[in-house]
Amino acid sequence: MMMRKVATYTLAVLALPLSATAATPAWRPDKPVEIIVNTSPGTGSDATGRLILRMLTEKKLIDVPATVVNKIGGGGTIGLAYLTQHPGNAHYLMVTSPTMLTNHITGKGAQNHNDITPLAQLGSESVVFAVRNESPLKTPRDISERIRGDAASLSFAIGNSVGSHNHIAVALLAKAVGANVRRLKVIPFNGSTEGITALLGGHLDVASTPAGSILTHVQAGRARVLAVAAEQRLGGAFASVPTWKELGFAVVAANWRSVVAAKGLSDEQVRYWDDVFTKLAQLPEWKQELQAKLEEDTYMNSRDTRRYMTAQYAELTAILSDLGLAKSAQDGK
Question: Which of 96, 107, 168, 287 is the most buried if burial means most Cβ atoms within 10 Å?
Fold first, then answer.
C-alpha cells in the first residue's frame, strides 16, 4: 500500500509543468549596471572603468545596459560612500585602488575593505616619477639630491589622496635619502590626470603617477619619466628608465585596480560576477590593453581579492606608520 502511494506521488510530481519543479534560477542583473569611478575622467581608474564597460557590452558578458559614473572628491571617499549606500545591490560596482585602504589608515576615510564586497583584481600599475620636458630636473639623482638638501624644495603632484600609493612612493624616496617625510610638498589632485595637467603647465615640479597616465605625454614629447618605483624596469616606452632600486633606493610602489561592490551581496551575486570577470580577464583584447598601458595582469577572483586586500591593509599600515602618515602615528599613539 505504501509503495503504491509513493508511486502515485511520483507520477503526480512528474506530471507537473516544468516551471513548477525547476529550481530558482541563479542571480543575474535585471536592471542597468553602474560602474562607479571615484576619480576624475581621464585618470587610470576612469580608463579602467571605461575599458571594463566596453568589454562587458561588446563581448556581451552581461545582458543589461551599463554605464560609468564618476563620483569625484574627498580623495576617493565620496565614491566609496556612494557605493556603500547600496548594500546587497549587485548592480553597483566600483573601480578602486590602494587609496581605499590608505584613506582609512590615514584617517581620511571611515570605510575600508571590510565595508565592501571585493569582486576581482584586474591589474597592477607601477608608479613613475615624471617631469615636464622643459624641466631642469634631468636625472633621478636631481630629484633625490634636491629633497635630501631640503624636503620642501620640490613640489610633487599625487593622485588622489594623501597616503596614496603615489604619496607612498615619494615618502619612501624621502626616507631613503634621509629627508624629513613630513616636510615634503605634496599636492593631492582628484586623479592623476589633473596632477599631470598641473605638471605640464609648470605649476609644480614632479608628478608621482601610475605609468599609464603619463605614457601619451611622454610619447608626444611633453614629459619625461626619470625613475620607476618598481622591482624591475618596465617595457615599451619606459624600457630605458631606471628603477629607484637599481639606483640604490628602496622605493617600490604600485597601484592595483580592483572591482568591488557594496557589502551584503549574496553568494549567487558574487558567483555571477566571479564568472563575468574571469571571462573578461581571459579576453585577448583585455590582455592587449593591459600590455599597451604597461599594466601587469594580476587577476584574482573575489575570494583571493579579499585575502589580498586584508594582507595589503596590514602591509600598508606598517609602511604608513613607519613614514609617520598613519593616523595612529600622527596621533602619537
Answer: 96
